[in-house]
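User: Here's a structure from my thesis project, written as structure tokens. My advisor, Dr. K., wants to see whether a designed sequence matches the one we expressed. Can you design one independently, without my sequence as a hint?
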């Protein structure tokens, strides 16, 4: 698919021409970019899928967008949702419920309806935007790609543990966007009966939650989760958490002059506060969880029970799923927060583990520490400071990402009925300027999923271009066929007999039995020692 002509064209940002498309909502003026001599990608930005969630519509479920008259200009991205940090080439506004569509076409022949890939961005449910991802390269694999915005932070996830503000507005936005895809994507050449939802980090948790939410039933035909699943403890909240969602809502209220104790009055007051004030006064992260994230609630019922319970009840959709993690998920974060660039001694590692245990576990802390050190540090020599540091990174990454991903994969494999594929992304670019010990951290796969090495800019290497072509092949083949095998690589489904997963590095190879000792530690040993259900990952 990607020859020299396409590479040159993508790298030099081929000049686009205007194109008009008639849709159910109205006419759109988009941009057409030609590749080769007979292929092109049409891009339509800033399509409203819901009414602006402002004024009385703040802290309420979204309402469908209405049709427009005339030709709507969809050549440039619209606002992303309010968030603390600015993002390049974007503006923020509470009127932000837009999506963007990239569709492949060919002059040579009439194309049948194309598989659709809907991307949900990450950002800890607190930042990001659909228009921050350029999807031309991915669309050139003969698919339609959709990226979406959804409400973030308090505007998307404020919850009071009652019907004053049940929460999950950002998740209900995503459901509305998926309904828009079902009802409108045929106008763009997409097949509404072949929709793959994929996401990274908070977007991966979102994708996983759509597999178990009653609101999302029938809206997706396959799913890909990159670094996050519904069983990730940081990805959802309950009223039993401390601080609770209500505690956090009241803390935000105190910051912006809404000190009412009655929840209805509190939400009414917060509804009148300027969106920028709410965003600037955002709260810090709670222990092991995000302040603003999906919450278990039964008023709207997007997440009527914990993911563990919903999966246990058989509520998960029976569709093909691809799940994966990056090899060193929390490396960069650990470097920034804990200053371990020079490595760690066994003493400092033990102190670090103890500090984390004291915050996370109320009982049997010494026994928990001994169990963790046995798995991660028992075979390490005191002089191997680099190895010790990598084991600490692995320990934190396992708990937050790796183990819940494996457990959720195992649960689907046991159920049967639909194939499930597992991967570990382990490619580090030769151009990477970060310290080698940071390895392949969180979000490292994203440039390769969206073809960034083919889009010009930094000095990407030929290795990078080969990897991105391979990764896009896996992702789009999965969207087309429910099987990510691509090129010379046969990617076997994960089964409880073989427990196979694809290691995606300089080469792609099948490996087996993913770190069973670590999985057992976090799912069996520690829950039993701590007598705590909260750490049972699944």
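Assistant: Designed independently from the structure alone:
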């Amino acid at each position: 698919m990607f020859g020299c002509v396409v590479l040159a064209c993508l790298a030099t940002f081929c000049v686009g021409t205007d194109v008009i498309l008639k849709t159910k909502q109205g006419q759109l003026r988009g941009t057409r970019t030609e590749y080769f001599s007979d292929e092109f990608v049409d891009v339509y930005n800033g399509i409203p899928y819901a009414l602006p969630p402002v004024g009385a519509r703040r802290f309420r479920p979204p309402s469908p967008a209405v049709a427009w008259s005339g030709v709507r200009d969809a050549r440039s991205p619209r606002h992303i949702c309010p968030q603390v940090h600015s993002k390049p080439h974007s503006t923020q506004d509470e009127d932000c419920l837009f999506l963007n569509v990239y569709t492949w076409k060919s002059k040579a022949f009439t194309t049948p309806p194309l598989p659709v890939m809907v991307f949900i961005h990450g950002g800890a449910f607190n930042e990001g935007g659909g228009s921050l991802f350029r999807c031309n390269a991915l669309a050139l694999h003969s698919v339609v790609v959709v990226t979406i915005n959804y409400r973030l932070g308090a505007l998307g996830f404020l919850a009071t543990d009652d019907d004053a503000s049940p929460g999950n507005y950002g998740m209900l936005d995503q459901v509305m966007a998926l309904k828009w895809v079902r009802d409108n994507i045929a106008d763009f050449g997409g097949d509404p009966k072949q929709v793959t939802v994929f996401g990274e980090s908070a977007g991966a948790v979102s994708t996983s939650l759509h597999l178990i939410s009653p609101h999302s039933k029938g809206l997706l035909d396959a799913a890909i989760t990159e670094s996050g699943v519904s069983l990730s403890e940081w990805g959802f909240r309950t009223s039993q958490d401390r601080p609770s969602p209500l505690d956090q809502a009241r803390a935000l209220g105190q910051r912006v002059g809404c000190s009412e104790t009655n929840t209805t009055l509190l939400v009414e007051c917060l509804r009148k506060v300027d969106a920028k004030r709410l965003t600037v006064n955002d709260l810090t992260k709670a222990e092991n969880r995000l302040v603003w994230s999906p919450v278990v609630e039964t008023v709207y019922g997007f997440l009527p029970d914990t993911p563990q319970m919903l999966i246990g009840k058989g509520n998960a959709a029976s569709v093909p799923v691809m799940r994966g993690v990056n090899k060193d998920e929390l490396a960069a974060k650990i470097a920034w927060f804990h200053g371990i660039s020079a490595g760690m001694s066994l003493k400092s590692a033990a102190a670090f583990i103890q500090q984390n245990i004291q915050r996370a576990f109320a009982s049997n802390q010494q026994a928990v520490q001994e169990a963790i050190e046995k798995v991660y540090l028992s075979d390490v020599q005191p002089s191997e400071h680099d190895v010790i540091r990598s084991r600490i990174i692995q320990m934190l990454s396992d708990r937050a990402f790796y183990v819940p991903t494996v457990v959720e994969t195992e649960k689907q494999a046991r159920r049967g009925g639909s194939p499930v594929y597992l991967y570990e992304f382990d490619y580090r670019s030769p151009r990477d300027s970060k310290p080698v010990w940071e390895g392949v951290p969180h979000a490292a796969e994203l440039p390769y999923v969206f073809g960034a090495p083919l889009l010009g800019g930094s000095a990407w290497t030929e290795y990078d271009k080969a990897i991105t072509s391979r990764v896009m092949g896996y992702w789009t083949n999965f969207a087309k066929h429910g099987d990510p095998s691509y090129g010379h690589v046969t990617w076997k489904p994960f089964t409880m007999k073989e427990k196979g997963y694809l290691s995606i590095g300089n080469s792609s190879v099948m490996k087996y039995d993913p770190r069973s000792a670590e999985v057992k530690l976090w799912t069996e040993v520690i829950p039993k020692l701590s007598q705590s259900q909260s750490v049972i990952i699944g």
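When you compare it with your expressed construct, this may help: The two ends are 41 Å apart (CA to CA).
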